[in-house]
Amino acid sequence: MDAFFDFSPLAEQFGTILVGFWATIRLTLMSGLLSLILGTILVAMRVSPTPVLRAAGTIYVNVLRNTPLTLVLLLCVLGLSDTLQYTLSSDSSTNYYWWATLGLSAYTAAFVCESLRAGINTVPAGQAEAARAIGLTFTQSLRLVVLPQAFRSVIAPLGSLLIALTKNTTIVIVAGYIEAASVMRQMFDDYGGTLPIFIGFAFGYMVLTLPTGYLFGWLAKRLAVSR
Amino acid sequence: MSTSSVLYDVPGPRARLRNNVLTLVSAVVILGIGYIVVRGLADKGQFAGKLWEPFLRGDVWANQIIPGLLATVQAAALSAVLALIFGMVFGLGRLSDHAWIRVPSGWVVEFFRAIPLLLLIFFVQFFPATASGYTVNVPAFAAVVIGLTLYNGSVLAEVFRAGILAVPRGQSEAGYAIGLRKGGVMRLILLPQATTAMMPAIVSQMVVLLKDTALGWVIAYEELLNFGLKQIPANFGNLIPSAIVISLVYIAINLVLGYVAIRLERRSRRSRRTPAGPVAAPAAAGVGGATPGSGME
């Protein structure tokens, strides 16, 4: 009945598991930050008065949103890094970390852009009209009036994206970079696929995602724009 | 896109000139980036004819791409059907009047939604072997389908629940008033109206499901990605061209599905069959928001 009740592997490998989850956290935070920046640039492109930029933004979002993340990460790791030899660091592990981060960010940015665009649509037209009336240019009204309100109204969806991103870091396993999912896979090889190991890792991901969810839910309520 | 046009005025002569300059500059920048990418690929010899030629050959399509696509569609279609059943059962379970059905249904749905799909797939693949003393072997196809079913089924359960809750209360009250029982109200009044409201969310979730079949790569299920990024490059050494072609196939399928979702949403907005507006995909646990999530997974 080892497969059901033996929790000792979790205790034996506790250090390795923590290392795995620390890698998950690092991947999540770095990709979250980069995708937020890229997503904001993309949404500015998508609402800009320049048709070329609008088209480029739309193409980017549609391509990345409809490609499986596994393919995006494989293209970064097998394609750009291994085949084309564009390395980001001489240390192999660091190189894969950065490629995985870039892949995750590029993919997530498309969804951040879509969320922000939905947020921009919640800003009343009168706000933008007022911004124009006092003589703000497009960039100024976007930066000072529209985007701040849009951000505050999409905090909850951005939280959902961060949670999805945390779960998506498991796919970095294709990059051969050690994070929590690959540690679990290795433990399944070493100890067999047991319920306690699975429960342990599931619990680990819940420890990461549930507080994120409640934090963003609370933030969304606190920062909601009253209209 | 209602406000984007409000962000800037109808351009006058100076603004038109400025816009034209901006258009020109951004076109130059984008073409420049494109040139660097193309140049980079060309320098590494990625445009050599022999790397692209396999995609013009019938046998590559007949033996690799089409079978891969079929395997992807098979896994996606079977999981879609199973996930819909799972979602229906647990979505209705969460709305049950009986706490002993409602509470466990809630746990099941929240659990499978909270953990990464890949962990689930690994568990489904490894656990039966270990528990049976290595006599049971779960095929990769089954592991992918079961994983996709449990995860997407849980998401769909939330969509079902939201869809049914979106039907105004008066509808079920009217049903009870004419003497229907709970089952009858659900079957004859709530479900038909909720279905219209949740169709767009269901189709969007199908895009997520189809993309997630690509996780089969990790456990060596031979689907489109496996043929496209493992087997074809193994034969022809053309990973980059192959990745580009394969992603175009995925994008084409998903754009069609996405288009269907948009059409369905427009129709259900116009529809007079139900007062329930279209429901969005559910947010993650603890995150409540007015704007819809966007189906990333």
Description:
The complex is a heterodimer of chains A (227) and B (297). Chain A has one domain (3-222): MetI-like fold, CATH 1.10.3720.10. In chain A, helix 3 runs antiparallel to helix 4. In chain A, 81% of the residues lie in helices and 0% in strands. The mean pLDDT of chain A is 92. With 227 residues, chain A is mainly α. Chain A has helices at 2-5, 8-12, 14-46, 51-65, 69-83, 92-122, 125-133, 138-153, 155-168, 180-191, 195-223. Chain B is mainly α and 297 residues long. Chain B folds into 2 domains: 1-44; 55-296, MetI-like fold (Orthogonal Bundle). In chain B, 72% of the residues lie in helices and 0% in strands. Chain B has 10 helices and no strands. Chain B has helices spanning 13-43, 49-52, 58-94, 99-114, 117-131, 140-165, 169-177, 182-212, 224-236, 239-270. The radius of gyration of chain B is 24 Å and the shape is flat. The chains are: A mainly alpha (227), B mainly alpha (297). The interface between A and B is large, with 85 and 70 residues. Chain A: One of its GO terms (biological process) is amino acid transport. Chain A: The chain crosses the membrane at residues 20-45, 66-84, 96-113, 154-178, 198-220. Chain A: It is found in: Cell membrane. Chain A: Pfam families: BPD_transp_1. Chain A: One of its GO terms (molecular function) is transmembrane transporter activity.
Can you count the helices of chain B? 10
* CATH-defined superfamily of chain A: MetI-like
User: Total number of β-strand segments of chain A?
Assistant: 0
Biggest sheet features of chain B: none
Strand content of chain A: under 5%
Q: How can the largest sheet of chain A be summarized? A: none
Give the domain tally of chain B: 2
Low-confidence segments of chain B: 289-293
Kindly, what is the distance between the CA atoms of the first and last residues of chain B, rounded to a whole number of angstroms? Answer: 25 Å
Helix content of chain A: over 70%
Essential attributes:
heterodimer; A: 227 residues; mainly alpha; MetI-like fold; B: 297 residues; 10 helices; 0% strand
